[in-house]
Amino acid sequence: MVSDRIRKKITRYFTGENKIIFSNIIPSCDSLANKFAGINELGIYLHIPFCNRICPYCPYNKELFNETRCGDYVDAVIKEIDLYAPFLKDKPVTSFYIGGGTPTTMLGKGIEKIINHLYRHLNMNCSVHMESHPNHLTEDNIRLIKSLGVRYLSIGVEALQERHLKAIERPYTVEEVKKNVERAVAGNFDCVNIDLIFDLPGQTRQEIEQAANDIIKLGVHQVAAYPLFRFNYTRLGKDFQKESNALTTMFRRRSFIKSLEDIFYASDFKRSSVWAFTKDGVDKYCSVTVPLYIGLGASGSTYLNDIFYINTFRSDEYIKTLTEGKLPIALSVALTADMQMAGWLYWRIYETRFRKSDFSRRFNGNFEEKYGSLMKTFSMMGYLKNGNDQITLTDKGSYWIHAFEDFFSISYINKLWGTSFQNPWPEQVIL
Ligand SMILES: C[S@@+](CC[C@H](N)C(=O)[O-])C[C@H]1O[C@@H](n2cnc3c(N)ncnc32)[C@H](O)[C@@H]1O
Ligand code: SF4
C-alpha cells in the first residue's frame, strides 16, 4: 500500500532503519542494573487494566473488573516494584502517572497499598497524576483520591450531548456527568483535566462548540480533546473500516480543531500539548513528564535510553510471571542513537515547545547539525517558530501533528497492541 511505503520512508528518514523490530529478547538483570546506573531521575507509569464496562472505541489494555483478579494484581505490582527497587536505590522519581483502564475501579481495593509501597520503598519526589471515570467521583471517592496524594486528576467525560454519550455507550447522562465534574473541581486539585472526543459519528461543529463552552463553565483547568481514533481491533474500529475518505476526514477535523482553538484561547486557556488546552498559570496534567520512565503493570512500557520494552498485556500472565519472581517483559527493542533522537524529537514536538539546548544536554550533540535544516523548512512552512534556542509549534503545526499521529502512530499502535492483545508472549512484531 502507498501509505505503508510512505510510513517506511519517514521511519528511514528519522531513524536510519527500514523497520522497527520488537522481539521477545528480555534484558538480563545485569544489563538492567547497568542501564539504571547512568540515570539520574526517572518517572513511573502504573497501568490499571480494570474497567466496569468496556467502551466500543477503546484501544487500551483493559478487562472487566474482577475482585479476585484485582487482589492478585495488587500483589503482583508490589512484586514488580520490589524487583526494580535495587536498581533505583535512592534515585529521585520525579513524575508518577496512573492510567488505564480505569484506576478508580481500584479505590479501596488495593490501589492505596500499591501507592504506599511505592512511597515507602522508592524515592518518590512528586505528586500523583491519575485518570478517573466520571461515575466514580462521589464525595467519598474524591476524599479517597486526595488521600492518595493525587493532585492532578483527569476525568473521561468524552461528550456532552445525550445522543453522543449513547452512541459511544458511556453510562451517564449529561446532567450526571456535569455534577460529578463540578464535585471534582470543588475538590481543590492542582489541575482537573477533562477528556473530550470530537469528530464522533454525525457530530456537528456546533455540538463540539457547545461541549467546549459547557466544560469551561464548569471551571475545569484543562481540556484534552482527541479526534475519535479508529483502531481496527476495537468494535467501533471494525464498523468503520469501510468508511475511509481520509481527505474529508482531515478537513472536517481541521474545522473542529479551529473551533476548539478559538473557544479556549478566548477563555484564557493556552495550548499545552498537541491535544490539550490548559488555563493560563496552571501546572498541566499530563502523562509521565520526564524522558526516562518505568512502566509497571500489565502492558506497562519502559524507556531507558537505549532500550524500550513492554510488559505482557494479559493480567493473568503478568501475575503468573511475577509470582515466579521474574519481570513480566514481553517485547523489547534496542534503540540506536538515531532512534533515540527521533523519539526525543517526537515527544518534544508533541509538547509543542522545547529548547534546542535540552537536546545538547541529553545527547551531547548539536541540535542544529542534526535537525537544523528540517526545522528551517518547517518554520518556512509556518509549522513552528524557530528561535535561537526555543522551538514553538504553531496551531498549523499542531494540526499537522494530529494528521501525522492519525497516519503514523495509530497504524503502529494497531500492529503492536493488536498483536499483544492476541498473544501475551509474541515472538516478534515488525513495525
Ligand atoms: C483510559 S481512558 C480514561 C479513563 C476512564 N477509563 C474513562 O474512560 O473515563 C483515556 C482516554 O482516552 C481517550 N480515548 C479512548 N479511546 C479513544 C479513541 N478511540 N479515540 C480518541 N480518544 C480515545 C478518551 O478520551 C479517554 O478518556
Ligand atoms: S474508555 Fe475508559 S472506561 Fe472505556 S474501556 Fe477504555 S479505559 Fe475502560
Architecture overview:
It is a single chain. By secondary structure, the protein is an alpha/beta fold. The chain has helices at residues 2-15, 29-37, 67-88, 111-121, 139-147, 162-167, 174-185, 205-217, 235-239, 246-266, 315-323, 337-350, 356-363, 367-380, 395-422; strands spanning 21-23, 42-48, 50-51, 63-64, 92-100, 123-124, 128-132, 150-158, 191-198, 222-227, 269-271, 276-279, 293-296, 301-303, 307-311, 329-334, 353-355, 384-386, 390-393, 428-430. The strands form 5 sheets. Strands 2, 5, 6, 7, 8, 9, 10, 11, 12 and 13 form a 10-stranded mixed sheet that branches. It has a 3-stranded antiparallel sheet with strand order 14-15-16, with no helix packed on it. The chain has a 3-stranded antiparallel sheet with strand order 17-19-18. Strand 7 (128-132), helix 5 (139-147) and strand 8 (150-158) form a beta-alpha-beta unit. The longest helix has 28 residues, at 395-422. The protein is globular. The mean pLDDT is 92. The chain binds S-adenosylmethionine (SAM) and iron/sulfur cluster (SF4). The site of S-adenosylmethionine has 18 residues, from strand 5, strand 8 and strand 9.
